[in-house]
Each structure stands twice: as C-alpha cells, then as structure tokens.
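In response to the reviewer comment on reproducibility (Comment 2.3), we provide here a single inverse folding case reported in full, input and output, so that an independent group could reproduce the run without further information from us. The structure tokens appear first.
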C-alpha cells in the first residue's frame, strides 16, 4: 500500500482551520444574538449548502419526495424549510434537525431554487448559496459512480496480493452513494472491511460491497435504496491505510457461493466526466 500519511495530515490541518474559523464565526454570531435581547443564546440560522441524499439526480439535483440535507449553523431550532414553487414558495416540516444540519423531504410542487430555513422563533436564514434543482423522477440515473467528489483509482482486482476489489482514494467524509437501486444485505463492522455495507443490484445477480466507511453505514439491512442515495462516507476503518473506498462486485452472491469480478470494468462506464482528484 502507498503511504498516505502526508495526504492525511494536510487534510487534518485543513479540518482544524475550518473548525477554528467556524468557532470564531460562531462566537461572533452568538454574541450578536445575545445583544439582540433574546433569552436564547442561539444565533441566526445560516445555510451553507443543500444537497440531495436520496431520490437524487445529482448532488444539487433532487426530485419531489427526495430527502435533502441542509448544512450550516444554528439549525437546531428549524421549524420549516422553504422551497421555491412555480408561484411563490412552499414550506415543508423538517424530518431531522441538529445544530449543523436539517433533513427535509422535497414537497410536491417545489421548484428549482435556493431553499432556506425558518426557525421556531420566525427567523429566516439566508438562501442556500448553491441552487438546488428539482427535476422529475424520470431524471434519476439508473446507475452512478459510488463516490460523490474528487477521487483517484489506486488499485484494482488482484493487484499482486489477491485483492478482491478496487481501492479508490478520496478525502475522508466524501459521500458514498449506492451505485444502483437495490436492497441492503449487510451493514456492519468487520476488522478488515471496517464499517461496510453490501447492497444487491436490482435486476442483476450482482452484490456490491462498500468498505472502510468512516462511520457505520447510514442504511439498515432490508432497506431499499435508490441509485445515488447516500449510504455512508469515505473513511479508513478496518484494515485500511489512507481514506478510500474498497469496492467489490460479486457475481452470484457476496460470500454466498458467488465470486468477485473486476470492479473497475464495472465502474469505468460510470465515471463522471472531468472530475479528478484536485491536487
Ligand atoms: Zn482494498
């Protein structure tokens, strides 16, 4: 395996800087909130992005009924998320909220625009800086590349060491998405695979395995997923050196009499155009 230590430490430095900057900004916003005379130390909600989690066409392209994640600050008192509609706006209740994120289902009638949140106290956030397109469900692609972000292919099947999959390097926390619609067969931890999930592929006898996730997979055994649905995030849990996805394609069942086939031949046609690791 190639040593990825320098890559990792530069990532940590960036993360530390971002954390420091958001701490400083947070302190300022919190002070401003207190000066406003409110009893709550909460600041004004701020949205930094809105990305699609399931029923997606792409990162910033959702469909009606899609789950969208808004990230930002002071989002834990969100009451509603407001979307643009063909005339005016349409609001939807959150399905999950934390200080840094809100999840919401895109309501029927929502149109492409820049969603924002409204707090329980009636305070509106800024509109999300990146436009979220809302497209018809027929726009959802059949199959997509499993990593949503810059990546680099490190190794394929065999690799002179009996490697059973492909290693694709990407920054830790890059979203991992289901390649195609299917049903989750495995979602657990293994000392070599780390946090991993195995998801079958509808209409085939293939099982796809996604390994070394940073946290346990965000899907449960038996759950049905759509192509492009976020199932976890790139990590290096288990026997991994450097953040990467270890991806396997099994014909005939994962450890159920099947055998791994060349995942790169499978992935090549799914590679997004002109997206390469920026370094
Ligand atoms: Zn591997």
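Designed residues, in position order:
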């Amino acid at each position: 395996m190639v040593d990825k230590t320098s890559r990792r430490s530069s990532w940590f430095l960036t993360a530390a800087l971002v954390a420091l900057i958001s701490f400083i900004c947070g302190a300022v916003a919190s002070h401003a909130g207190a000066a406003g005379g409110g009893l709550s130390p909460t600041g004004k909600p701020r949205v930094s992005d809105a990305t699609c989690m399931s029923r997606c066409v792409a990162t910033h392209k959702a469909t009606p009924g899609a789950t969208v994640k808004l990230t930002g600050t002071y989002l834990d008192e969100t009451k509603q998320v407001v979307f643009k509609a063909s005339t005016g706006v349409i609001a939807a209740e959150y399905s999950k909220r934390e200080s840094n994120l809100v999840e919401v289902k895109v309501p029927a009638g929502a149109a492409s625009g820049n969603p924002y949140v409204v707090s329980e106290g009636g305070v509106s956030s800024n509109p999300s800086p990146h436009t979220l397109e809302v497209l018809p469900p027929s726009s959802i692609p059949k199959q997509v590349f499993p990593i949503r972000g810059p990546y680099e292919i490190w190794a394929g099947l065999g690799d002179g060491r009996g490697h059973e999959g492909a290693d694709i390097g990407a920054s830790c926390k890059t979203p991992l998405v289901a390649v195609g619609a299917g049903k989750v067969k495995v979602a657990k931890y293994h000392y070599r695979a780390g946090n991993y999930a195995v998801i079958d592929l509808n209409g085939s006898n293939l099982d796809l395995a996604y390994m070394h996730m940073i946290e346990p997979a965000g899907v449960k055994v038996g759950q049905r997923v759509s192509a492009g649905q976020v199932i976890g995030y790139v990590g290096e849990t288990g026997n991994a050196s450097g953040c990467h996805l270890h991806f396997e394609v099994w014909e005939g069942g994962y450890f159920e009499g099947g055998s791994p086939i060349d995942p790169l031949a499978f992935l090549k046609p799914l590679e997004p155009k002109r997206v390469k690791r920026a370094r």
